[in-house]
Amino acid sequence: MKWLLPKLTERLEKFHSVASHIPVPPFVNHVPVENDSTISHSWMWPRLGRFFKEKDVIVTETGTSNFGIMDVQLPENTILASQIFWGSIGWSVGTFFVVSESATVV
């Protein structure tokens, strides 16, 4: 990875002047209306996002929560700790401990 990123950055540099002017539409937290009692991903994740507040630190586990959180609009200054690279089940347990200890110091 440490060899890939500098080379990738170097090659993408020439696109910066054009890409930085491409408008990006704001994220809209669309909460679908469903007519049955089934709890689906499209129902749950947008609603879960309503519980987060500014400056929250959110830790997601490998699997469903890693992918579901991508559809959630996060408040300003929120930190999302997630790892998809290794797919290591249990990663969030240690991460949660470190994040919670760090939050008390800051």
Can you describe this structure?
With 106 residues, the chain is mainly alpha-helical. It has a domain of 53 residues. It contains five helices and two strands; from the N terminus they run H-H-H-E-H-E-H. Strands 1-2 form a two-stranded parallel sheet. Helix 4 links the parallel strand 1 and strand 2. The mean pLDDT is 86.
Radius of gyration: 18 Å
Q: Tell me the number of strands.
A: 2
Main sheet makeup: 2 strands, parallel
Strand content: 5-15%
Topology order in helix (H) and strand (E) letters: HHHEHEH
What's the mean pLDDT score? 86
Fraction of residues in helix: 25-40%
Strand ordering within the main sheet: 1-2
> Helix/strand-derived class?
mainly alpha
- Low confidence ranges: none
Separation, N- and C-terminal Cα atoms: 30 Å
Shape: extended
Number of helices: 5
Topology diagram in text:
Layout: H1 4-12, H2 16-19, H3 41-48, E1 57-59, H4 64-68, E2 79-81, H5 91-105
Quick rundown:
With 106 residues, the chain is mainly alpha-helical.
List keywords for this structure.
single chain, 106 residues, mainly alpha, two-stranded parallel sheet, 5 helices, 39% helix
